[in-house]
Write a structure and sequence with these properties.
- The chain is α+β, with helices and mostly antiparallel strands.
- It has one domain: Sandwich (Jelly Rolls), CATH 2.60.120.330.
- Helices cover about 20% and strands about 25% of the residues.
- The protein contains five helices and twelve strands.
- This is Prolyl 4-hydroxylase alpha subunit Fe(2+) 2OG dioxygenase domain-containing protein.
Length: about 260
């Protein structure tokens, strides 16, 4: 039977929507409560919706009963402080799983390549239902930052780098694409991340905001690209050697829980 997926994401695995006028909204992400939850880099997360409405960030499959990343429970104390962020996450009308704001401390391109990961959105997702993808709404004006997308973690061929000014909006099949953000800083980057179920509601939302699945990559000097690739190889080899010395093997997928 297979899963219900969005045709707009089929070719490249991502779409970029019209830019949002972030200046109209207050900085609600500064008022909500954060957890020290590590993902791809030095991060914290502030959940707006979680498995059972608690301020925690664990995968839904790690709860009892375990389930896929759908039917998130909105956290009253958080959404009271962030009604605009909540409204934006709910606007598509698609089923929402986890919804949270990420705080990312400054990093470099080499860090990004080492931190590239795929998400595990569809664990326990029943066949015949909508495939879970993620929306990324950049909240801060990170003029020199960019989102890195790859089909293959260690292959730079076809890498896409998407600019992250305030109001940048993209939807990514993060279980398909390896992804992480390069953020030179100097201040933390904040981004609203929402798990959405694919289906007619999400398709209509993508169409409403003129989603495109090809954008020009942010230009990065070739020496920086080459150095980042070399450093990724070095770090991955060092990690594999350390794990082997402990009699362990690295997981094929570095997933963000």
């Amino acid at each position: 039977m297979g899963y219900i997926k969005s045709a707009a994401l089929e070719e490249t695995g991502y779409v970029v929507l019209d830019r949002y006028n972030q200046e109209l909204d207050p900085k609600e992400w500064l008022d909500i409560e954060y957890n020290d939850w590590k993902s791809s880099g030095d991060t914290r997360f502030a959940p707006l919706a979680s498995a059972f409405g608690a301020i925690e960030c664990n995968g839904f499959w790690n709860h009892k009963p375990p389930r896929t990343d759908k039917d998130g429970v909105w956290i009253d104390s958080q959404i009271e402080k962030a009604p605009n962020l909540t409204r934006r996450a709910q606007e598509p009308g698609a089923n929402v799983g986890r919804c949270r704001v990420i705080e990312l401390q400054p990093n470099e391109y080499a860090d990004t390549l080492y931190n590239l990961h795929q998400d595990d959105n569809n664990r326990l997702n029943p066949d015949g239902t909508g495939w879970v993808v993620r929306g990324f709404f950049n909240l801060t004006d990170d003029a020199t930052s960019f989102f890195v997308l790859r089909e293959n973690r260690t292959d730079p061929q076809g890498e896409t780098r998407i600019a992250l000014p305030a109001g940048a909006q993209l939807i990514v099949d993060t279980q398909r694409l390896w992804h992480a953000a390069t953020h030179p800083g100097p201040d933390p980057r904040y981004c609203l991340i929402t798990s959405w179920e694919s289906g007619p509601e999400l398709d209509a939302y993508i169409e409403k905001y003129n989603g495109v699945n090809h954008v020009e990559s942010v230009e990065v000097p070739q020496d920086v690209l080459d150095a980042g690739q070399a450093e990724q190889s070095r770090r991955l080899a060092a990690r594999a050697a350390a794990l082997a010395a402990r009699g362990q093997a690295e997981n094929a997928v570095m997933s963000e829980a």
